[in-house]
Design brief:
The complex is a heterodimer of chains A (161) and B (119). With 161 residues, chain A is α+β, with helices and mostly antiparallel strands. Chain A contains four helices and five strands, in the order E-H-H-E-E-H-E-E-H. Chain A has a five-stranded antiparallel β-sheet, covered by helices on one side. The C terminus of chain A is likely disordered. Chain B has one domain: 2-Layer Sandwich (Transcription Regulator spoIIAA), CATH 3.30.750.24. In chain B, helix 3 links the parallel strand 4 and strand 5. Classes of the chains: A alpha+beta (161), B alpha/beta (119). At the A-B interface, helix 2 and helix 3 of A face helix 2 and helix 3 of B.
Chain lengths: 161, 119
């Protein structure tokens, strides 16, 4: 496991925590533990913490399994960036990436009893933003964003003139 | 932390009290083997008590679906008991809540076995 910086204070400046993990499924729980600490510090509700936790869990599994093809020589990088109104998490692997819009819909009647194919759907459901970006020079990065009080902000947006 | 499972028999039904995590790796493998083992013994009526399951991921959901279809295909029934709010919500958003036969009272759940689904 790579470095774990001390948890930062909340300031106007975005704080960054970066972690490097080897492609071993045992490290999924390490990633979860760090995620829980970060999201707890940021001040998310327990419910939101669980959602962020699950989104990172699914993303890190995808990075190790699908991205790095379980190759222990390849790594996964996690980057947490704490803003005053949101948490942004980047998960980078050394794989070729994928187009999330081309994945089958797990809620379609014919896919309902499929054994796999729900990971990205859960990430999308649990986070406010989800993007997949190719990295110049190789690798793929997924970007997850969870806003603080995202339900409230959705409410206030509806109330805007 | 992985998954723990304790089996007991009520009438002809095998109740599996599960705790911990049903996630990719150990938890999923254990569930798969448990179900296979019971089917091998001719036990086709299974009630999974998920009261103490703290975490299910997308692989765990897939494993539950797989267990459900495997048991159904062999003419058996697999039902779920005592979902936590997290697991309940997860089955709701994946539209699986109505696929599974879900109960929150063990005695009543036991009484529904042997009847046609939806009856």
């Amino acid at each position: 496991m790579g470095l774990v910086l001390p948890l930062p204070n909340m300031t106007a400046e975005a704080s960054v925590i970066e972690v490097e993990l080897e492609s071993d499924l045992k490290n999924v729980e390490v990633a979860e533990e760090i995620t829980r600490r970060v999201s707890g510090t940021v001040g998310f509700s327990e419910d939101d913490q669980h959602k962020i936790d699950m989104a990172v869990h699914e993303s890190v599994i995808n990075a190790i399994w699908h991205g790095n093809k379980n190759d222990p020589g390849k790594h996964v990088w996690l980057r947490f960036q704490i803003f005053s109104d949101r948490l942004e998490i980047r998960i980078r692997d050394q794989g070729n990436g994928y187009d999330p819009s081309k994945l089958p819909d797990p809620l379609a009647e014919e896919n309902l009893l499929n054994v796999s194919g729900r990971g990205i759907f859960l990430i999308r459901t649990f986070m406010d933003e989800f993007r997949v970006e190719g990295i110049a020079g190789g690798g793929t990065e997924v970007i997850l964003v969870k806003r603080l009080n995202s339900n409230n902000s959705a409410q206030s947006r509806r109330n805007e003139p | 932390m992985s998954m723990k499972a304790t089996l007991r028999q009520v009438d002809s039904i095998i109740v599996i009290d599960m705790s911990g995590r049903i996630t990719l790796g150990e938890g999923c493998t254990q569930l798969r083997e448990l179900v296979r083992e019971q089917l091998g013994k001719g036990k086709k009526e299974l009630l999974l008590n998920l009261a103490d399951i703290t975490y299910i991921d997308s692989s765990g959901i897939g494993e539950l679906v797989s267990a459900f279809t495997t048991v159904s295909n062999q003419g058996g029934q697999l039902k779920l008991l005592n979902l936590t709010k997290k697991v309940h919500d997860l089955l709701q958003i994946t539209k699986l809540y109505t696929v599974f036969d879900v109960h929150d009272d063990e005695a009543k759940a036991i009484g529904t076995f042997g009847k046609a689904a939806g009856a």
